[in-house]
Design a protein that fits this description.
Layout: H1 6-27, H2 33-48, E1 64-67, H3 73-83, H4 89-93, H5 123-142, E2 154-159, H6 160-164, H7 167-178, E3 183-189, E4 192-193, E5 196-197, H8 206-213, E6 216-222, H9 226-240, E7 248-253, H10 276-286, H11 297-303, H12 306-326, H13 328-339, H14 344-358, E8 364-365, H15 366-377, E9 384-388, H16 392-395, E10 413-415, H17 420-433, E11 437-443, H18 447-460, E12 465-469, H19 487-492, E13 498-500, H20 505-517, E14 523-526, E15 531-532, H21 541-544, E16 549-552, E17 559-563, H22 568-579, E18 585-589, H23 593-597, H24 601-607, E19 614-617, H25 626-629, E20 634-636, H26 647-653, H27 658-681, H28 684-698
Parallel strand pairs: 1-2, 2-3, 3-7, 6-7, 9-10, 9-11, 11-12, 12-14, 13-14, 17-18, 17-19, 19-20
Antiparallel strand pairs: 4-5, 8-15, 16-18
């Protein structure tokens, strides 16, 4: 790409600055400082180096661009508009307004050309590492001599805030270890955050920090000198293709709010509109005479990238067709993977695989049942990319025939090291890039470390799978630091996250199949360390897919027992013991409340009749279950932290036992019988009111 003249480069950068200034001013909300400070960097990257096609934002071999400092969202919105994406000026005029495509922070799936949702600082950088990892893995798998069909860069803008967040260490350390050489990060070193000059709380030697990670560092680049910036980018791209190529950090010294005569270089321009007087002064200082939201035609034409983007894509498609001629099977597989479609054999063989799993009589921990499911499913899901945060032997996320990926080794399973948050955010980046279904494991209690990345996956509707083992006090002697109590309920209330807690091998396999098939959001599998008995048969598979179902029923049911995971077997034991006393119960297994809640009201009422008293049992905080048992139902759970002891002792100590379930059912059955007696003996005048009380009390 040809460089513009110095004057035109300055005008092009000022177009970005003033669109950001005008949009934030009109909204009276936003962050103009970063777009103004990084406009020159953006001109150099987007106008001279970035390989993209505004007419087709999703073509596979485009470069990826991530704005990790997502508060500066008007930077990317201005760039997308100017280069020709489907983001008209009217959308910029509606910045931060309801239902606009220019939200306060960039959102993937909302704005064409936005590759990931950013805002929580540091996560965009970690997403970019995941994208670069996906590119490297796909290239290792699909590229052939003379046929480089996967060959693109991942560029990321980031600021001081991204580097202060601990996730930056997790992601950048791993990126350096893996030599993700096509990852290029631009550090907006302006020395300002919301509280003011960062020297009071951030004095890291960032270049040396990244050199220690194993990055290629280009230090002390003037972020307002297009020539110096262009040289730096060319240097980064040149070393990326070397055998020992490394990710690159370009340290750009900038002035936040560059162009604002009175606020540049201060925290006043970080997160607030400039104000009418300062906007006018900025226009004068920059020599920008165009009206708000207007870009002179010569500058607009210089920015437009549609034609060269179409040329870049056509060039790649010619290469890909040559690849298809010589490697037709690989080409078809690449297209399937990028499209996110599953192999037909997955669905075709699934009933047979589930039947084989359901036929196994032995008691196993659901973490082992999960590995058994992976052994059966992985050969039909070549896009799997698994891993664990240094707990593979405990999470059992590896499977027969998996290949460990590393610095110079492609594969389908990775040891992420003790980096739970980094792993989760990197998996998001892998999913966003396309070509893989990522999953990763850790202990459930450590989901706290990765929780915000899990939330972001749910917000972005990504097909990411989290494997959380050691899901309760059932893990035993490791004690309360590792025993999850509140985690499952809290994960369940994240919108769009499906949380599975299966009770046996078949439920575990169905959970895996459901998570693999799901295109519109992440899933979490919460699995036991202790062995659990087989409770289901293959005929229940379709019912399990509905999230909650009747596992065992009786004539003349007087109460319902709802359970998940390791406590489901306790429910079954309680049902048998209560039957000997003449109390008939129904056992409902609810491996995924989120999926159950999406079923029709008729189905939910069929499984959990409103008129039947209900007991829920789960070795977790009990409050969540009130939505199912009501105020008059009972929950057998644990509302305190655990203890260090063998699992069987802990279950007895905390009263998560068959006896306690039986006592709860007896109590509810007695209350229900007493109400019926009162109801039957009431006169006509009180009948209606009493009936209403009974209905309310049982719902």
């Amino acid at each position: 790409m040809n460089a513009p003249t110095p004057d035109m480069a300055r005008h092009m950068a000022n177009a970005v600055r003033m669109l950001a200034v005008d949009a934030v001013e009109q909204a009276k909300s936003g962050h103009p400082g970063a777009p103004m400070g990084m406009a020159d960097i953006a001109e150099v990257l987007w106008n001279r180096h970035l390989k993209h096609n505004p007419a087709n934002p999703k073509w596979p071999d485009r470069d990826r661009f991530v704005l990790s400092n997502g508060h500066g969202s008007m930077l990317i919105y201005a760039l997308l508009h100017l280069t020709g994406y489907d983001l008209p000026m009217e959308e910029l005029k509606h910045f931060r307004q309801l239902h606009s495509r220019t939200a306060g922070h960039p959102e993937v799936g909302v704005t064409p050309g936005v590759e990931t949702t950013t805002g929580p600082l540091g996560q965009g950088l970690a997403n970019a590492a995941g994208m670069a990892l996906a590119e490297k893995l796909l290239a290792a798998e699909f590229n052939k001599p003379g046929h480089g069909v996967v060959d693109h860069f991942t560029y990321v803008f980031m600021g001081d805030g991204c580097l202060m967040e601990g996730i930056s260490h997790e992601a950048c350390s791993l990126a350096g270890t893996l030599r993700l050489s096509k990852l290029v990060a631009f550090y907006d070193d302006n020395g300002i955050s919301i509280d003011g000059h960062v020297e009071g709380w951030f004095t890291d030697d960032t270049p040396r920090r990244f050199e220690a990670y194993g990055w290629n560092v280009i230090a002390a680049v003037d972020g307002h000198d297009p020539l110096a910036l262009d040289v730096a980018v060319r240097s980064a791209k040149a070393q990326a293709v070397l055998p020992d190529g490394r990710p690159t950090l370009i340290c750009c010294k900038t002035v936040i709010g560059h162009g604002s005569p009175n606020k540049a270089g201060t925290h006043d321009v970080h997160g607030a509109a400039l104000g009418a007087a300062e906007v006018a002064a900025t226009r004068e200082a920059l020599g920008w005479t165009a009206a708000p939201f207007e870009v002179p035609m010569d500058i607009a034409n210089a920015w437009n990238a549609v034609e060269r983007g179409q040329v870049a894509e056509r060039t790649w498609r010619v290469r890909f067709e040559a690849y298809r001629t010589q490697y037709p099977l690989e080409a078809a597989e690449f297209e399937r993977r990028v499209a996110g479609d599953l192999l037909p054999v997955f669905s075709d063989k699934l009933p047979e695989l589930l039947a084989a799993i359901a036929a196994k009589p032995e008691a196993v921990a659901t973490r082992k049942a999960s590995q058994n499911a992976l052994d059966a499913l992985a050969p039909r899901v070549p896009e799997f990319f698994g891993g664990s945060a240094d707990l593979t032997g405990s999470n059992l996320t590896n499977f027969k025939g998996c290949v460990r990926a590393g610095r110079d080794q492609g594969g389908n399973h990775m040891s992420y090291g003790v980096r739970e948050f980094g792993m989760a955010a990197i998996m998001n980046g892998i999913a966003l890039h396309g070509g893989f279904i990522p999953y990763g494991g850790t202990f459930l209690t450590f989901s706290d470390y990765s929780r915000n990345a899990i939330r972001m996956a749910a917000l972005m509707k990504l097909r990411v799978i989290h494997v959380f083992t050691h899901d309760s006090i059932g893990l035993g002697e490791d004690g309360p630091t590792h025993q999850s109590v509140e985690h499952i309920p809290s994960l369940r209330i994240i919108p769009n996250l499906d949380v599975w807690r299966p009770a046996d091998g078949l439920e575990t396999a169905v959970a895996w199949a459901h998570a693999i098939k799901r295109h519109d959001g992440p899933s979490a599998l919460c699995l036991s360390r202790q062995n659990l008995p087989r409770l289901t048969d293959v005929g229940m598979a379709e019912s399990i897919r509905r999230g909650g179902y009747v596992l065992s029923d009786m004539e003349g049911v007087q109460a319902v027992i709802v359970a998940t995971g390791s406590e489901t077997s306790l429910a079954m034991e309680a049902q048998a013991a209560l039957a000997s006393e003449g109390i008939a119960t129904r056992v409902v297994s609810m491996p995924c409340t989120n999926v159950f809640d999406r079923q029709s009201e008729a189905y939910q009422a069929l499984v959990l009749p409103l008129g039947l008293p209900t007991v829920a049992i789960e070795a977790a905080h009990p409050d969540f279950w009130r939505k199912y048992v009501g105020r008059t139902g009972m929950v057998v759970g644990i509302a305190s932290f655990g203890e260090s002891a063998p699992a069987s002792d802990l279950y007895a100590h905390f009263g998560i036992t068959v006896q306690r379930v039986m006592e709860s059912v007896r109590t509810l059955a007695h209350r229900a019988a007493h109400r019926r007696e009162i109801w039957m003996g009431s006169d006509d005048r009180s009948h209606g009111a009493l009936s209403e009380q009974i209905v309310l009390s049982t719902t």
